[in-house]
Structures are given as structure tokens and as C-alpha cells.
Amino acid sequence: MDNKNSAWYQRLRAVECQDSTMSLSEDFLVLQEGQGSILRDVEGRSFIDLCAGFGALTHGHIDITAWTQNLKEDGLVQGMGDVYPSASKVKLLETIKSLLPPHLEKGALAVTGSQAVELALKTACLATGGNNFLCFQNGYHGLDIGVLPVTDGDHFRKPFESLLPHGRGFHLPYGCSIELLEKSYSDNSLKYGRIAAVLVEPIQGRGGIILPPPEWLMSLRHFCDKKNLLLIFDEVFTGLGRIGTMTSSFDVPCDITCLGKALGGGMPVSACFGTKEVMSSWPMNTGEAIHTGTFFGHALSCSVANKNLEFLVAQGLAERSASLGLKGLFFLKNSLLATSFVKDIRGKGLMIVIEMHESNQGVVLMNTLKRKGIIAIPSGPKGQCLSITPALNIPEPLFFEALETICGIIQSW
Ligand SMILES: Cc1ncc(COP(=O)(O)O)c(C=O)c1O
């Protein structure tokens, strides 16, 4: 067995909380470096990376030294968040605004995707006076306490129920009828008080890459208008090129959108952007912000995010994601849909999933792929899917080499 990997893994086990990293009994893998879409482990073995840091690495594993060289006016590592802004933070907010439709005018930065959604929930609470949310089964919005009510999954929530705030999330089937939304809205607002917003992923990511029915997002918009609710898009996974567009809010105007993952190109930075009206429900900060964090809008992360977005636009990576994703989808469907193990293949842009009939089959495939030098992770509530979310600039031959290997494995079952 690979001794170095095992030794590193045992060291980790001795010092890390046992929940923090998946436990393995064999096939240990400890990553050490990355270049583009190639990862290397502590033994120097190479892997094609189809996960790209859970969809965060737009340009793959970048050479951070090259990206941060000559950062003259943006050379600060850590700024003074809510007291004195960094120039890089100002630029990042301006750049994000320039990529969104004009009605999403103002935003706030944070570090993680969870925190961007938390910002959205707090904004909706301030803007409407409500603290309950209509959200969706199988939805994932992060695991911080503030977003636990809206992330689906009892196993995430149950152990911490006593810590949960009073706000509630009412989970409806993704793609459900407007009648069902109407019913949940009236039953729950009567019972629990004002509902502030509908929170939705334009495509469900961690839940197994599930696309909504056509026009469904627009019908949510109409529903929100009718009931005077805000419409919040969680675009932490789908945003900034992943599904072939910068944001779904050009097609359907949401009131608030949340961005994370791809924003920093690998650096931890996230954002919540909303209309001027909803964002101005926050009080003016005359000395102390009522929502901030030491590393919110971290100066160096903002500098890298600025470069990331500049290159993303200049290199047309959203468009590339759309066209390469379509080719990949076509290839996988042609190769696999006739096999008995595969239930469905779907996706948009470079957010593709192979769903299998049996629970846990995504985990089995992940482990087999690891032995063949490919990194991809399972998704879906029963681990029945394998998600493919590579860097948006993955070289085409490398992408298809990996897809061919996946197809070969499934065809051999
Ligand atoms: C749609 C969506 N929202 C929020 C999050 C939470 O982001 P983070 O893990 O950065 O807190 C995720 C993470 O996968 C996500 O996919």
C-alpha cells in the first residue's frame, strides 16, 4: 500500500476532529500540489481533477505566486474590513456589479458560501420583517447555524436542533407546483408568522445536479410578486460560469443573489448582491457594522478574485463551459444511457451528473476512479450520482480522456 499517503493520513487522524475528513480504511489519498486540472498526491502520483475544489477552481489549480506578483496597488493581504476598506475590495464589488443585471446594485462580501446565504437571509429578514423561508427538498445552502434551517437534511440539523434560531425553512419538492407553494405559504405563515422569501438554487448542486422544469424559476418570480416575498437565488455553485452563464438572474430577475465558490478562483471569498431597495434595509454603519467578520472581504482574496474574474471574462470561460459541457453531455449520453447501471445523465455547462440506479454507486465509482487516476465526487441524497465539475479551462483532450475512463469502467460492470 502507498506508505506515504497512509503515514500522512495517520498523522491527520491523530490531530483532527473525526468529522472533518472522510474516514478511509484503505486507498488513502493526501493531496500535495495542483497544476491546472492535474492534482498530485504526497507520493507524486497524478490525477485528473474533475472536482476542481468542489466547483470553485474556475482556472484549475493556479500558480498563486504568479497571480499575486506585481500586485502594486492591491498588495495588501489583510485589510480592516468594516472600518477602512481595501482598494481591492472596492474593485471586487464594482466588478461583481458589472457582471450582474443592473437591478442588482449593491452587495456585501463574506468568506464562505454559507455566509453569503446567511447575508441573504438576514437581508430578507430586515427588508420584510419575516424570518421564515420557503425552500426546497434536497437543497444545500451550507451548514452554518444561520443556514441550517434552509439546508435540507435531518442528519445535518437534528444534532443541533437546540441551537437553531427561530426562523424556519419549509422544504417543498424542487420543481413543485405553484399550488403547493401557495398552500405551504398560507399554512405556514398562519402557523409560524411572516415568510420573508423563497430561496432556491437555479440548479441543485450537491443534491445531485437537478435541473428545474422549464419556466419554473420564472413562475417562482410571479409567485413572489403576488405574495410580496423576495426571491433569493443561491448561485454559490451555479454562478460565474459553472453552468455556462454568469448568473441566472439575467433570465429571471431575483431580488438577491448569493455567489461563492468560483468568485475567488480558489481563494475564500463570497458575496450577496441585491436590489438597492432591499440592501438599503441594512442600517447605515456609523461606527459598528451589525454583520461583519475579521476576514470578510479579505484584501488578498479580493485581489485574486479580481484577476480571476478579469481572466474569466477575457478568456470567455462561461461560454467555453457551455460548449464543452454540451459536448461532454452528448458523449456521456451516447456511451452510457444504454447501460443497465445508469438511470440518467444530465447537466448544464460544466456541471454534469451521472445518476445510477443504486444507492451509493457514486461512492463506488469515485473509489474506482481514484485508482485509475481521476478525482470526482458523489452527490445526491443516496450517493447515487457522480458529479463532474472540472475547471472551466480544463484542456479538452484531458476532459475526454477522463470521460472515456469513466465510461469504460461503467461499461465493464
Ligand atoms: C448552492 C450552495 N450554497 C451554499 C453552499 C455553501 O458554501 P460553503 O461550503 O462555501 O459554505 C454550497 C456548497 O456546496 C452550495 O453548493
Summarize the structure.
The protein has 413 residues and is of the alpha/beta class. It has 13 helices and 15 strands.
Structure characterization notes:
- Helix content is 36%, strand content 17%.
- The protein contains 13 helices and 15 strands.
- With 413 residues, it is α/β, with parallel strands linked by helices.
- It has 2 domains: 3-63 and 316-412, Aspartate Aminotransferase, domain 1, CATH 3.90.1150.10; 70-314, 3-Layer(aba) Sandwich (Aspartate Aminotransferase, domain 2).
- The mean pLDDT is 96.
- The chain starts with a helix and ends with a helix.
- The protein is globular and about 55 Å long.
- The chain binds pyridoxal-5'-phosphate (PLP).
- Residues 54, 112-114, 117, 140-142, 201, 205-206, 234, 236-237, 260 line the site of pyridoxal-5'-phosphate.
Number of helices: 13
Query: How much is the average pLDDT?
Result: 96
Q: Tell the overall outline.
A: globular
Main sheet: strands, sense, barrel: 7 strands, mixed
Summarize the helices and strands and which ones pair or pack.
Blueprint: H1 3-15, E1 31-35, E2 38-41, E3 46-49, H2 52-55, H3 64-68, H4 87-99, E4 106-110, H5 113-128, E5 132-136, H6 154-157, E6 169-172, H7 178-192, E7 195-200, H8 216-227, E8 230-234, E9 256-259, E10 270-274, H9 276-279, H10 299-314, H11 317-336, E11 342-348, E12 351-356, H12 361-371, E13 374-375, E14 377-379, E15 385-388, H13 396-412
Parallel strand pairs: 3-13, 5-6, 5-7, 7-8, 8-9
Antiparallel strand pairs: 1-2, 2-3, 4-10, 9-10, 11-12, 12-15, 14-15
Pyridoxal-5'-phosphate binds next to helix 5.
